[in-house]
Amino acid sequence: MPGRPRALRGALLALALFLVAGCGLLPDTARQADTGLRIMVPNTPGGGYDTTARTAARVLQETGVDPDIQVFNLPGAGGTVGVQRIVNERGNGRLALQMGLGVVGASHMAHAKASVAQTTPLARLAEEAGAVVVRRDSPYRSITALIAAWKRNPARLRIGGGSSLGGPDHLLPMELAKAVGIRPQRVHYVAYEGGGGDLLPALLDGEVDFATTGFGEFLDQIDARQLRVLAVTSEKPVDTLPAVPTLKASGIDLVFGNWRGIVAPPGISAADRRRWITELSALHASRQWKAELRRHGWTDAFAVGDSFGAFLSEQDASVARLVTGLGLN
Fold it and tell me: How far is residue 41's CA from residue 30's CA, in Å, rounded to a whole number?
C-alpha cells in the first residue's frame, strides 16, 4: 500500500524528534517557545553553578517573580561547551548562562573560540571565599601542618577541585603553591568537573589529600564533622565559619575569591535584557535570596548591566594574565 511507507516514515520522524527533544538536542527556541526564561548550567548537577542557578530559580518561582523559569544542564569541557552554545544562540533573549570565574578560566585554558567577552552581561549574583578542606581523619590538623608536608614533597599530595583546568578550584592551589614557595608545575591537581557532587566522595574516600574549593557546597558535611576546613581564602573570616582562620592570618599572603554571574547570548533585544535585569534585581531584593546567601555562605556581590560588564572585562583580562604568568597555557 503506497500510503503505508509514508505514514511509517512520518511516525518514525515524529519518534526521532521526540527522542531528540528528550535528550536536549533540539534548539532552545523549538523546545521552549511558550515557557519563558531558561538558565543553562555549563556543568553537571551538584556543583556550584548548578546550586546557584537552581537556588535562584527556586526563589524566583517561590516569590512569584517568574513562576515558569527553568534550569537545565549542558556540561562539557569545563563550561566552554555552554559558552559556545550561548554565543551560538545569538538574539535568543529567553536563554541565559550561569557562569563565573571558572568558565572564564576554562575558556583561556582551552583557547576556545567562543568567550564570555562575546556575551551580554546581565548580573553578578554572589562571591564565595575559597577554602582548604580535608576529611575528618586527615593527618593534617592545621593549614601550617599541611603546607609543611606539601613543601616537603609537592608531587605526592593530591589536591582535588570541583573545576577543570583554569577554574577557581584549579587556580587557587596554583596561587597557593606560588605563595608558599612551591613551583605550580609540581602541583598534583585532580579535577572533578562535576563540581561538589563528584569531589565530595573523592575527598571522603581519600582519593585526594585535600581539596581547594568553595566550602558552601560542603556545609552539611562540615557541620556533621565529616570534613574540616583548615583555612579560608577571604580577607576576613567568614560568618558561616567564624573559627576558621584566613590564609593571611596563618602567615600566607594570599586572598582569593570566586564569583558567579549570569550572561545572555549576544544581540538580544533591549527589552529582553531589561526583563532579565528586572527579574534578577527582584531576586536580589527578596528576603528569600538573602536567606539563601547566608545559608550557603555566599557574599552578596550584586551588580547588573554595564557595571557587571566592566567587571567581566576586567576579570577576563586578569585571568588571561594569571594563566600566562603561571605557565598554564
Answer: 19
Cβ(238)–Cβ(244) below 8 Å: yes
Q: Decide: 35 and 68 in contact? Cβ < 8 Å.
A: yes
Burial 43-53 (b: 16+ CB within 10 A, else e): bbebbbbbbbb
C-alpha cell at 161: 577541585
**Do the two domains 27-127+258-325 and 128-257 of this chain adopt the same fold?**
yes
In CATH, 128-257 is 3.40.190.10: yes
Q: 163-207, pLDDT tens digit by residue? A: 888 889 999 999 999 999 999 999 999 998 655 678 999 999 999
Considering the entire predicted model, what is its pTM? 0.80
Strand partners, 229: 133
Summarised one tens digit per residue, pLDDT across range 91-100 is 999 999 999 9
Asked which of 62-66, 221-225, 236-240, 287-291 is least confident by mean pLDDT, the reply is 236-240
**SS3 track for the chain:** CCHHHHHHHHHHHHHHHHHHHHCCCCCHHHHCCCCCCEEEECCCCCCHHHHHHHHHHHHHHHCCCCCCCEEEECCCHHHHHHHHHHHHCCCCCCEEEEEEHHHHHHHHHHCCCCCHHHCEEEEEEEEEEEEEEEECCCCCCCHHHHHHHHHHCCCCCEEEECCCCCCHHHHHHHHHHHHHCCCHHHCEEEECCCCHHHHHHHHHCCCCCEEEEEHHHHHHHHHCCCEEEEEECCCCCCCCCCCCCECHHHCCCCCCEEEEEEEECCCCCHHHHHHHHHHHHHHHHCHHHHHHHHHHCCEEEEEEHHHHHHHHHHHHHHHHHHHHHCCCC
Q: Which CATH class is domain 27-127+258-325?
A: alpha beta
What residue ranges do the domains of the chain occupy?
A: 27-127+258-325, 128-257
